[in-house]
Write a structure and sequence with these properties.
By secondary structure, this protein is an alpha/beta fold. The chain folds into 2 domains: 8-219 and 377-467, Zn peptidases (Aminopeptidase, 3-Layer(aba) Sandwich), CATH 3.40.630.10; 221-370, Alpha-Beta Plaits, CATH 3.30.70.360. The protein has helices spanning 8-13, 17-22, 26-39, 50-63, 138-153, 178-185, 244-257, 266-277, 282-292, 297-303, 307-312, 349-360, 384-397, 414-417, 448-467; strands at 71-76, 79-89, 99-104, 123-125, 128-130, 162-167, 194-197, 201-204, 210-219, 221-230, 234-235, 316-324, 330-331, 334-343, 366-370, 403-408, 424-426, 431-432, 445-447. The strands form 5 sheets. The chain has a 6-stranded mixed sheet, covered by helices on one side. A hairpin with a 2-residue loop joins strand 4 (123-125) and strand 5.
Amino acid sequence: MFGRILGAAALALGLSQTAVAADLRPDQVRFREIYKELVETNTSLSVGSCTVAAAKMGARLRSAGFADADLTYFSVPDHPKEGGLVAVLKGSSKTARPMLLLGHLDVVEAKRADWVRDPYVFNEENGVYYGRGVADMKVIDATWVDTLMRFKETKYVPKRTIKLALTCGEETLAAFNGAEYLAKNKRELIDAEFALNEGGGGRADKDGKLQSQGVQVGEKVVQQFRMETTNPGGHSSVPIRDNAIYQLAQGLLRVRDYDFPLQMNDTTRAFFAKAGAGRTDPAGLAMVAISKDPADKAAEAELNKDRGFHSMLRTTCVATLLDGGHAENALPQRAGANINCRMFPGATMEDTKAKLEAAIGDPGVKLIPLPPIRARSTPAPLDAKVLGPMEKVAAKYFPGVPVIPTMSTGASDALYLIPVGIPTYGVPGFWSGPEGSGAHGLNEHMSVTSAMTGRDYLAELVKVLADEG
C-alpha cells in the first residue's frame, strides 16, 4: 500500500530528488539492488511466483551468513508458486520474546498496455522509482531483508530474536495466504511478542513538506455479502412493478443511504486527538471534539464531510458488483449485487448483517454472507514499548513530525496474526503526497528520498526494538 514523494528530510538538507538518487551510500546501493530484484520478479497471481521471489531473498540472506537451518521455505502442493520464507536471526536473551518482521511478496495485477512504463521493470526517473510493488510493499520487504543481512554481516547479536516472514496471497482472496497458513499451521515458527508490518507511513503536502507519520494500530475486517432478489419472471411484453431488478435497486439505495452507528476505540480516539491538535480549520476542531465526546453530533457531521474520516468512524458497506436477468425479452428471475463491508474492530458478520437487513427493510431482499467469514478484529494495544521507540527514532529522521496512531480502513495480513496473539503494527517511515503512490493502480511510484530515508529509519527502529527486549 503507500507510495511516497519528496518530503521534509530532503527539503531540510537542501537536496533534490535527483541528487539523492545519484549519491547513494554503498549500503544504500545494495539495498537498491535488492529492491530492484524484488520489483523485477513478477509476483502477480496470474503469471508470477512468490516462491521464486522467496528463493531469491533466501539466497541473499545465505550470502550474508545465514545458515540453511535459519531459513524455512514453505508452500502447499495446490499453490506451488505462492510459497514464502521465514528467516531467523537468533538473539542472546533466553527470556526476551522474539519480534517478527512481516511482508507480503505478491502484488496486484498490472497491464503493460495501461502503464507509461513496463510495470515489472524497476525504473528510476527524476529521483522517483516506478514499478509494480515499489510502494506496496516491496520497499518494506527489501528493507527487512537488507536489515537482517547487515546485522548478520556485522556480527550484531540482538537481545531478542528477530524473525522475518515473507509471504504470498495478501492481495488476492483466491490465492493461498502465507500469513494465514503460518498462523494456523506453523505458529511456533513465527511466535513473537509483536510484529511489524505494512500499513503505516507518512503524508506530505503538495509542496513536499512531511506533515505526519502514521503507525497502524488496528484495521477493519472485510466481509462480503451477496444481495439477491428472485421472481417468477415472465414475458417482457407484459411488465409489472414486481420486478427482481427494481426490488434489488431499492435495496441498494437503502444500503447507500444507511450510516452505521459511530464507533471509536483507543486508536481512533488517539488519532483524532493528535491529528486534530495541529489544525485550526473546522475539521481539526471537530477531530479534537469527537475524541473527547463521541456523542458530539456537530463534530460528527463535520467529519462525515471527509470520506476518510467518515470511514474511520464506523462500519461501511458499499455495492461493488451487479448482475441480473437472463434474457433481453424476459422479466428478470434473479438479480444480485456484491456488498463489500469493512467492519469496525469488534463488529461481527452477524451484527453487520442484522443492521443491513433492518436498513433494507424488505424480507424479499436476501443477504447471503460469502466466505471467508472473518474473525472479529481486535486492535493491537497502544503499547509504549513499541510506539515509544517509533517516536524516538522518528524524532531523529523526521524532526518535528508527529507520529500518530491510525486505524486502517483497509485490511492487511495483520488480521491473521492478531487472533493468534501476535499484536501487529503498521510501521512509519515511508511517505506519500496528496496524489498517492499509484499502489493498486497505474504507474506506482516512490521517491528515492522516501525509499532511502524510510529504509534507514526502519533499520534503526528494528535494532532499538530488538535491543530493548
